[in-house]
Amino acid sequence: MIKFLLDYSSGVPVYRQIIDQIRFGIASGQLKLGEQLPTVRALAVTLKVNLNTVSKAYKELEIKNILETQQGTGTFISSTKMAVPKKEREDKLKEICLQFSSVAFSYGFSLDEIMQELKHIETT
Amino acid sequence: MIKFLLDYSSGVPVYRQIIDQIRFGIASGQLKLGEQLPTVRALAVTLKVNLNTVSKAYKELEIKNILETQQGTGTFISSTKMAVPKKEREDKLKEICLQFSSVAFSYGFSLDEIMQELKHIETT
DNA sequence: TATGTTGTACTATAACAATATGACAAAGGT
DNA sequence: ACCTTTGTCATATTGTTATAGTACAACATA
Q: What is the pTM of this model?
Protein backbone atom coordinates (compact mmCIF):
# COMPACT_ATOMS: atom_id res chain seq x y z
CA MET A 1 0.00 0.00 0.00
CA ILE A 2 1.04 3.50 -0.76
CA LYS A 3 1.66 6.17 1.82
CA PHE A 4 -0.27 9.32 1.12
CA LEU A 5 1.03 12.70 2.20
CA LEU A 6 -0.50 16.11 1.74
CA ASP A 7 1.50 19.28 1.35
CA TYR A 8 -0.75 22.17 2.22
CA SER A 9 2.03 24.68 1.60
CA SER A 10 2.31 23.75 -2.05
CA GLY A 11 -0.89 25.39 -3.18
CA VAL A 12 -1.84 22.29 -5.14
CA PRO A 13 -5.44 21.22 -4.53
CA VAL A 14 -5.82 18.18 -2.29
CA TYR A 15 -7.72 16.09 -4.82
CA ARG A 16 -4.94 16.70 -7.33
CA GLN A 17 -2.29 15.64 -4.86
CA ILE A 18 -4.19 12.40 -4.31
CA ILE A 19 -4.50 11.83 -8.05
CA ASP A 20 -0.80 12.48 -8.62
CA GLN A 21 0.34 10.25 -5.80
CA ILE A 22 -1.72 7.37 -7.12
CA ARG A 23 -0.49 7.93 -10.66
CA PHE A 24 3.12 8.23 -9.63
CA GLY A 25 2.71 5.33 -7.24
CA ILE A 26 1.71 3.20 -10.20
CA ALA A 27 4.56 4.54 -12.29
CA SER A 28 7.11 3.68 -9.63
CA GLY A 29 5.73 0.19 -9.13
CA GLN A 30 4.52 0.75 -5.58
CA LEU A 31 0.95 0.25 -6.72
CA LYS A 32 0.28 -2.85 -8.74
CA LEU A 33 -2.41 -4.03 -11.08
CA GLY A 34 -5.53 -5.16 -9.26
CA GLU A 35 -4.40 -3.75 -5.94
CA GLN A 36 -7.10 -2.24 -3.79
CA LEU A 37 -6.86 1.37 -2.72
CA PRO A 38 -8.15 2.64 0.62
CA THR A 39 -11.91 3.20 0.64
CA VAL A 40 -12.99 6.77 0.08
CA ARG A 41 -14.08 7.02 3.69
CA ALA A 42 -10.91 5.48 5.08
CA LEU A 43 -8.60 7.71 3.09
CA ALA A 44 -10.69 10.74 3.97
CA VAL A 45 -10.21 9.97 7.65
CA THR A 46 -6.49 9.28 7.22
CA LEU A 47 -5.85 12.50 5.36
CA LYS A 48 -8.35 14.42 7.46
CA VAL A 49 -10.19 15.68 4.41
CA ASN A 50 -13.77 15.41 3.27
CA LEU A 51 -15.10 12.23 1.72
CA ASN A 52 -16.08 14.18 -1.38
CA THR A 53 -12.48 15.27 -1.97
CA VAL A 54 -11.23 11.70 -2.10
CA SER A 55 -14.22 10.70 -4.17
CA LYS A 56 -13.44 13.42 -6.69
CA ALA A 57 -9.88 12.16 -7.07
CA TYR A 58 -10.92 8.52 -7.48
CA LYS A 59 -13.61 9.40 -9.95
CA GLU A 60 -11.29 11.37 -12.17
CA LEU A 61 -8.91 8.43 -12.28
CA GLU A 62 -11.77 6.10 -13.06
CA ILE A 63 -12.74 8.24 -16.02
CA LYS A 64 -9.18 7.86 -17.26
CA ASN A 65 -9.52 4.08 -16.86
CA ILE A 66 -6.71 3.97 -14.34
CA LEU A 67 -8.99 2.91 -11.52
CA GLU A 68 -12.00 0.64 -11.44
CA THR A 69 -14.66 0.97 -8.81
CA GLN A 70 -17.22 -1.46 -7.53
CA GLN A 71 -19.86 -0.21 -5.17
CA GLY A 72 -19.86 -2.13 -1.95
CA THR A 73 -16.45 -3.60 -2.68
CA GLY A 74 -13.90 -0.91 -3.24
CA THR A 75 -11.58 0.78 -5.70
CA PHE A 76 -8.83 -1.02 -7.57
CA ILE A 77 -5.98 -0.36 -9.95
CA SER A 78 -7.31 -1.40 -13.34
CA SER A 79 -4.43 -0.30 -15.51
CA THR A 80 -0.78 0.35 -14.98
CA LYS A 81 -0.24 1.65 -18.45
CA MET A 82 -0.42 5.28 -19.34
CA ALA A 83 -0.62 6.28 -15.68
CA VAL A 84 2.36 8.57 -16.07
CA PRO A 85 4.30 9.10 -19.28
CA LYS A 86 8.02 8.61 -18.76
CA LYS A 87 8.76 12.21 -19.58
CA GLU A 88 6.24 13.50 -17.09
CA ARG A 89 7.88 11.48 -14.36
CA GLU A 90 11.28 12.90 -15.24
CA ASP A 91 9.86 16.40 -15.36
CA LYS A 92 8.24 15.95 -11.98
CA LEU A 93 11.49 14.84 -10.45
CA LYS A 94 13.25 17.86 -11.90
CA GLU A 95 10.50 20.14 -10.73
CA ILE A 96 10.51 19.09 -7.11
CA CYS A 97 14.30 18.98 -6.97
CA LEU A 98 14.55 22.45 -8.44
CA GLN A 99 11.96 23.77 -6.07
CA PHE A 100 13.69 22.16 -3.11
CA SER A 101 17.13 23.43 -4.07
CA SER A 102 15.69 26.89 -4.45
CA VAL A 103 14.44 26.87 -0.90
CA ALA A 104 17.62 25.28 0.42
CA PHE A 105 19.84 27.79 -1.35
CA SER A 106 17.78 30.70 -0.11
CA TYR A 107 18.52 29.51 3.39
CA GLY A 108 22.18 29.52 2.50
CA PHE A 109 22.77 25.80 2.40
CA SER A 110 25.22 24.39 -0.10
CA LEU A 111 24.64 21.43 -2.37
CA ASP A 112 27.17 19.45 -0.32
CA GLU A 113 25.33 20.13 2.91
CA ILE A 114 22.06 19.09 1.34
CA MET A 115 23.47 15.85 -0.09
CA GLN A 116 25.13 15.03 3.19
CA GLU A 117 21.88 15.45 5.07
CA LEU A 118 19.83 13.52 2.56
CA LYS A 119 22.16 10.53 2.88
CA HIS A 120 21.04 10.21 6.47
CA ILE A 121 17.37 10.13 5.60
CA GLU A 122 15.76 6.83 6.39
CA THR A 123 13.89 5.40 3.47
CA THR A 124 11.52 3.50 5.76
CA MET B 1 16.48 39.66 -16.06
CA ILE B 2 14.63 36.51 -15.22
CA LYS B 3 12.38 34.62 -17.60
CA PHE B 4 8.96 33.90 -16.19
CA LEU B 5 6.97 30.90 -17.27
CA LEU B 6 3.57 29.74 -16.09
CA ASP B 7 2.39 26.17 -15.90
CA TYR B 8 -1.38 26.13 -15.86
CA SER B 9 -1.52 22.36 -15.69
CA SER B 10 0.30 22.22 -12.37
CA GLY B 11 -2.59 23.39 -10.24
CA VAL B 12 -0.33 25.85 -8.45
CA PRO B 13 -1.86 29.34 -8.24
CA VAL B 14 -0.34 31.86 -10.64
CA TYR B 15 0.67 34.30 -7.93
CA ARG B 16 2.51 31.49 -6.16
CA GLN B 17 4.34 30.50 -9.31
CA ILE B 18 5.52 34.07 -9.67
CA ILE B 19 6.70 34.13 -6.07
CA ASP B 20 8.51 30.82 -6.45
CA GLN B 21 10.26 31.88 -9.63
CA ILE B 22 11.52 35.08 -8.09
CA ARG B 23 12.75 33.21 -5.04
CA PHE B 24 14.47 30.65 -7.21
CA GLY B 25 15.94 33.44 -9.35
CA ILE B 26 17.48 34.95 -6.27
CA ALA B 27 18.65 31.63 -4.87
CA SER B 28 20.28 30.67 -8.14
CA GLY B 29 21.96 34.03 -8.60
CA GLN B 30 20.00 35.05 -11.68
CA LEU B 31 18.48 37.91 -9.74
CA LYS B 32 20.89 40.14 -7.88
CA LEU B 33 20.65 42.60 -5.06
CA GLY B 34 19.16 45.91 -6.17
CA GLU B 35 18.03 44.58 -9.53
CA GLN B 36 14.72 45.87 -10.81
CA LEU B 37 11.91 43.47 -11.57
CA PRO B 38 9.37 44.03 -14.35
CA THR B 39 6.64 46.47 -13.41
CA VAL B 40 3.39 44.92 -12.26
CA ARG B 41 1.70 46.07 -15.44
CA ALA B 42 4.48 44.88 -17.72
CA LEU B 43 4.66 41.43 -16.16
CA ALA B 44 0.88 41.16 -16.19
CA VAL B 45 0.92 41.75 -19.94
CA THR B 46 3.81 39.35 -20.50
CA LEU B 47 2.16 36.55 -18.54
CA LYS B 48 -1.30 37.48 -19.78
CA VAL B 49 -2.65 37.65 -16.27
CA ASN B 50 -4.34 40.37 -14.31
CA LEU B 51 -2.35 43.19 -12.79
CA ASN B 52 -3.70 42.33 -9.36
CA THR B 53 -2.27 38.82 -9.58
CA VAL B 54 1.26 40.12 -10.12
CA SER B 55 0.71 42.74 -7.46
CA LYS B 56 -0.30 40.08 -4.99
CA ALA B 57 2.91 38.16 -5.62
CA TYR B 58 5.13 41.23 -5.30
CA LYS B 59 3.41 42.37 -2.17
CA GLU B 60 3.82 39.05 -0.44
CA LEU B 61 7.54 39.12 -1.16
CA GLU B 62 7.74 42.67 0.07
CA ILE B 63 6.19 41.66 3.37
CA LYS B 64 8.96 39.08 3.69
CA ASN B 65 11.51 41.83 3.00
CA ILE B 66 12.71 40.10 -0.13
CA LEU B 67 11.47 42.86 -2.42
CA GLU B 68 11.32 46.60 -1.97
CA THR B 69 8.82 48.74 -3.81
CA GLN B 70 8.82 52.42 -4.63
CA GLN B 71 5.71 53.90 -6.13
CA GLY B 72 6.43 55.61 -9.40
CA THR B 73 9.78 53.87 -9.71
CA GLY B 74 9.41 50.12 -9.53
CA THR B 75 10.14 46.98 -7.57
CA PHE B 76 13.61 45.84 -6.60
CA ILE B 77 15.42 42.95 -4.96
CA SER B 78 16.18 44.13 -1.45
CA SER B 79 17.56 40.96 0.04
CA THR B 80 19.19 37.84 -1.30
CA LYS B 81 19.30 36.01 2.00
CA MET B 82 16.87 34.52 4.39
CA ALA B 83 17.44 35.61 7.94
CA VAL B 84 18.02 32.40 9.83
CA PRO B 85 19.43 32.29 13.36
CA LYS B 86 22.63 30.27 13.30
CA LYS B 87 21.45 28.07 16.13
CA GLU B 88 18.52 26.89 14.07
CA ARG B 89 20.53 26.37 10.92
CA GLU B 90 21.13 22.68 11.40
CA ASP B 91 17.58 22.05 12.48
CA LYS B 92 16.32 23.93 9.48
CA LEU B 93 18.42 21.82 7.14
CA LYS B 94 17.07 18.63 8.64
CA GLU B 95 13.56 19.96 8.53
CA ILE B 96 13.53 20.93 4.87
CA CYS B 97 15.38 17.77 3.83
CA LEU B 98 12.91 15.58 5.67
CA GLN B 99 9.98 17.44 4.23
CA PHE B 100 11.43 17.23 0.76
CA SER B 101 12.20 13.54 0.95
CA SER B 102 8.69 12.81 2.19
CA VAL B 103 7.22 14.59 -0.79
CA ALA B 104 9.64 12.87 -3.17
CA PHE B 105 8.86 9.45 -1.73
CA SER B 106 5.14 10.07 -1.95
CA TYR B 107 5.66 10.56 -5.65
CA GLY B 108 7.50 7.27 -5.77
CA PHE B 109 11.01 8.56 -6.31
CA SER B 110 13.91 6.76 -4.69
CA LEU B 111 16.74 8.37 -2.77
CA ASP B 112 19.08 7.45 -5.59
CA GLU B 113 16.94 9.17 -8.17
CA ILE B 114 16.76 12.28 -6.02
CA MET B 115 20.48 12.41 -5.41
CA GLN B 116 21.18 11.84 -9.07
CA GLU B 117 18.94 14.70 -10.07
CA LEU B 118 20.27 17.08 -7.45
CA LYS B 119 23.79 16.58 -8.73
CA HIS B 120 22.68 18.13 -11.98
CA ILE B 121 21.29 21.26 -10.39
CA GLU B 122 23.18 24.26 -11.58
CA THR B 123 24.26 26.59 -8.85
CA THR B 124 25.32 29.29 -11.30
C1' DT C 1 -33.38 -11.76 4.05
C1' DA C 2 -31.12 -8.35 6.77
C1' DT C 3 -27.20 -5.67 7.78
C1' DG C 4 -23.05 -3.34 6.95
C1' DT C 5 -19.77 -1.60 3.65
C1' DT C 6 -18.75 0.75 -0.43
C1' DG C 7 -19.20 4.24 -3.98
C1' DT C 8 -22.35 7.97 -5.71
C1' DA C 9 -25.25 12.08 -5.85
C1' DC C 10 -27.06 16.32 -4.34
C1' DT C 11 -27.57 20.75 -1.83
C1' DA C 12 -25.71 24.45 0.67
C1' DT C 13 -21.92 27.09 2.41
C1' DA C 14 -17.41 29.16 2.76
C1' DA C 15 -12.91 30.41 1.26
C1' DC C 16 -9.73 31.27 -2.33
C1' DA C 17 -7.99 32.59 -7.06
C1' DA C 18 -8.38 35.37 -10.83
C1' DT C 19 -10.52 38.78 -13.59
C1' DA C 20 -12.43 43.39 -14.91
C1' DT C 21 -12.71 48.18 -13.71
C1' DG C 22 -11.90 52.28 -11.82
C1' DA C 23 -9.67 55.40 -8.92
C1' DC C 24 -5.84 57.07 -6.10
C1' DA C 25 -0.86 58.03 -4.39
C1' DA C 26 4.04 58.67 -5.05
C1' DA C 27 7.96 59.51 -7.74
C1' DG C 28 10.35 61.12 -12.04
C1' DG C 29 10.92 63.70 -16.22
C1' DT C 30 9.59 67.42 -19.21
C1' DA D 1 3.23 72.84 -12.99
C1' DC D 2 2.01 68.98 -15.84
C1' DC D 3 2.09 64.42 -17.43
C1' DT D 4 3.60 59.76 -17.34
C1' DT D 5 4.86 55.80 -14.92
C1' DT D 6 4.78 53.25 -11.01
C1' DG D 7 2.52 50.67 -7.15
C1' DT D 8 -1.85 50.48 -4.35
C1' DC D 9 -6.61 49.95 -3.17
C1' DA D 10 -11.53 48.82 -3.54
C1' DT D 11 -15.58 46.73 -5.55
C1' DA D 12 -17.97 43.34 -8.11
C1' DT D 13 -18.09 38.95 -10.57
C1' DT D 14 -16.82 34.29 -11.90
C1' DG D 15 -15.04 29.73 -11.27
C1' DT D 16 -12.67 26.35 -8.32
C1' DT D 17 -11.75 23.90 -4.07
C1' DA D 18 -13.26 22.03 0.09
C1' DT D 19 -16.42 21.21 3.67
C1' DA D 20 -20.81 19.48 5.96
C1' DG D 21 -24.66 16.89 5.76
C1' DT D 22 -27.95 13.79 3.84
C1' DA D 23 -29.66 10.28 1.10
C1' DC D 24 -29.35 6.57 -2.18
C1' DA D 25 -27.55 2.38 -4.93
C1' DA D 26 -24.76 -1.71 -5.42
C1' DC D 27 -22.46 -5.40 -3.44
C1' DA D 28 -20.82 -8.88 0.24
C1' DT D 29 -21.73 -11.55 3.92
C1' DA D 30 -23.79 -13.56 7.94
A: 0.86
